[in-house]
Amino acid sequence: MKRISCEVVAVGTELLLGQIVDTNSSWIGEQLALSGIDSFFQTKVGDNPERIKSVLRQALNRSDYVIVCGGLGPTQDDLTRDMIAEVMGVELRLRDDLVEKIASMFSGRNRRMPENNLRQAMVPEGAEPLAVMPGTAPGLKAPIGGKTIYAVPGVPWEMKQMVTSCIIPDIRTEAGLTSIIRSKTLRTWGDSESGLAEKLSNDIERLDQEGTATIAFLASGIEGLKIRITAKGDSEEKVNAILEAEAKKVSRTIGDEIIFSHNDQSMESTIIQLCRSQGLSLGVAESMTGGLIASRITSHSGSSDVFKGGIIPYANEVKHAVLHVADGPAVSKVTVEQMAKSVCEVLNCDVSVAISGNAGPTAMEDEVGRVWMATSVDGKVESFTIKWPFDRDRVRQFTTISVLNALRLRLSNRQ
Amino acid sequence: MKRISCEVVAVGTELLLGQIVDTNSSWIGEQLALSGIDSFFQTKVGDNPERIKSVLRQALNRSDYVIVCGGLGPTQDDLTRDMIAEVMGVELRLRDDLVEKIASMFSGRNRRMPENNLRQAMVPEGAEPLAVMPGTAPGLKAPIGGKTIYAVPGVPWEMKQMVTSCIIPDIRTEAGLTSIIRSKTLRTWGDSESGLAEKLSNDIERLDQEGTATIAFLASGIEGLKIRITAKGDSEEKVNAILEAEAKKVSRTIGDEIIFSHNDQSMESTIIQLCRSQGLSLGVAESMTGGLIASRITSHSGSSDVFKGGIIPYANEVKHAVLHVADGPAVSKVTVEQMAKSVCEVLNCDVSVAISGNAGPTAMEDEVGRVWMATSVDGKVESFTIKWPFDRDRVRQFTTISVLNALRLRLSNRQ
To answer: CATH classification of B6-174 is 3.40.980.10, yes or no?
Structure first.
């Protein structure tokens, strides 16, 4: 099979100045990889005519396809349309159909189309606007000497729709890539990347030889380690069967305990699901994490089905007054267990997690990084302690996922 | 004065695959801009010998300096050292001083240096290791035909130290850039970028002509709009005087009310400072934001000086039981005002913020995006409502900064 390559060019002086991080190119790179299209270079260039042209010419030299991202807006700084026309050696033409489309978008919002936006309806002769047009900036497909430049706006949601529903299918069709590529992501907590790689080394080797699927590890730090299984085949059905079979083998090898999602879900979503399926209501008592756990849970729509609320007893007097914690050291087994127990009573909920610790940077009566965590399920409280070697932010983040993981294990075993 | 240009090359297949977003290049780009060094291109390339060489050669062709980031680790995949040697047309030599330095880092942690790490002590003939070496990967300075390649590891904290304390001073010295460049960032909430640009247009024009300083707007979304004033001069004293004078003019023009920090601080930090200086303790009652406000406050060390804690009455029964809210609509003026009042009593604190709203995606008894916010200061409660046209995440984020801004204004006027 012919290998097809596509490179990405991001246009915008603000990208070079570091005022915006170029996440668009990373996202496009990932989509290309998942679609079986090679991508060897990504370039950022400022809003400068000569430099944009030189980058486009070079990209056409060394890749089959080029996706240019950004510079399609209505202002004089938006040069991508003009530079593509110059590289093609053609003129820009005003397209009446695009004028109409853009004008109707403005009128739909009861606004008049500014004169400037007419620039967005200009298309290089021989190029075509992309069929999908979520905003006022049309995408472009421009054929040049047997190669193709696609232009998409820098606005992420507009760009993503165009890449997913126009550009990638288009490249795959032209290149005769008919195979279907799908992936499945297992999310884990509790083992290192090298630990997992060692355990899965036989599977990885076998897949290398069979060529039906690949296993990749994606470290997502405080979100745990992702194991991504990717399979290729000629029907949706076959590919899914391979993914399911390989995922089962991986689970068997590394043990189901450390897998918190078979479907790329966050730890919080897993907790919400477990509570919902068992008809349990949830509460939190967070001292050191100070609302981080509750905030993560409530970031998911549907959390209100199970989440009753939380108490953040940051000052010790609040631990005493609201959660009936007795005098004594705040970062301790007895305090955190009382917090987990009381919060179930105060909020009238079935299960809870509780945290007390010192995230630093200053050691108080406790060493920095020392955290006590507790879970309460069916009135039974369990607790454990960890001394993290991290900075404040990571102590709070690692504590959050650790205590939720402890609750997950208890709820899973309860079923 | 001669313009000097430096481009950035990031090496790593994982960057092209989108497994890691390349924040290093953005950071380096920002440092170069703040140091008066032009940067016109940034390139990402995978771990492939020929492609790395082609990118380096091209970068040397079109820029005076090149910073290569990544590929200096101990494994066979780490090709940067070798490729620089090939581009220079020289051999790699093992440097005994580096072997010793790396070995001592391992022995300091009671670990034996793996054989692999010897690769990191290899330096192309004619190149020199950088003086600063925070980890086991030495940086490199490689002169090639009147131009220079600097190589730094991809680990951000190692890279940053090398760029800040070696590379940028080095380039500035060689290029004869003796002027000092400093900037000052004002953070604002409550006006749009175009609104601020219009108000400041006279100042921006004047500075364009005087050439002593520039004003740039950095949109940071839910964190508000930053106004960055950058000045250049031949002494620290003069530059700071310009910055202070221009910042004063900007405050006068746009009004002090919308500036929440003169020193690039977050809204939460400003609140903590205001409470601390006035000897006030703080509490929160967050329904819709579900811990986000408390989490943001407690992410700052020193928040325990003023932050007593919070109640998250996510379920309505918790609003009744813990915060004594009467029956009636949950998203309402009367509910949110009672929440702000009660939380001061329950947590025994002086000031509070309270939130009740519907972040979506489902309309309940209230429309999606409708939020009531209240602040309590010295026992006096004030409230307001906004209907946000955003998704769940942004409704929560915009609500957080809006209610904290309302508290900021009340505390500032109280002083």
So the answer is: yes
